[in-house]
């Protein structure tokens, strides 16, 4: 069964959103795809915040990538002036 993670992010005060997003698009999203994610959607939710919706083929694929994902998240904070503010995850139970 397909599995979703939704993470929320905030860029540092004074950082350029477009510059931060470009770095994420070039480095972070391809890394998630390489770990097995089938789709990643980033939604800008305010001037400094975003939500990333990542779809995985199943929970096992997401769980197998856990350590690598943690490493990417640490580097995002350090390198891209962005911090994760929340996470939700679960199996897709309905889809239209």
TrEMBL record:
This is Antibiotic biosynthesis monooxygenase. It comes from Sulfitobacter delicatus. The lineage of its organism: Bacteria, Pseudomonadati, Pseudomonadota, Alphaproteobacteria, Rhodobacterales.
């Amino acid at each position: 069964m397909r599995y979703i993670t939704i993470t929320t992010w905030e860029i540092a005060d004074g950082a350029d959103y477009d510059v931060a997003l470009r770095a994420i698009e070039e480095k972070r999203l391809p890394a998630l795809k390489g770990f097995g994610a089938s789709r990643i959607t980033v939604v800008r939710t305010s001037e400094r915040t975003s939500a990333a919706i990542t779809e995985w083929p199943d929970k096992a694929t997401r769980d197998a990538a856990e350590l690598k994902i943690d490493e990417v998240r640490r580097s995002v904070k350090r390198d891209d002036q962005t911090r994760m503010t929340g996470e939700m995850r679960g199996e897709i139970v309905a889809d239209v």
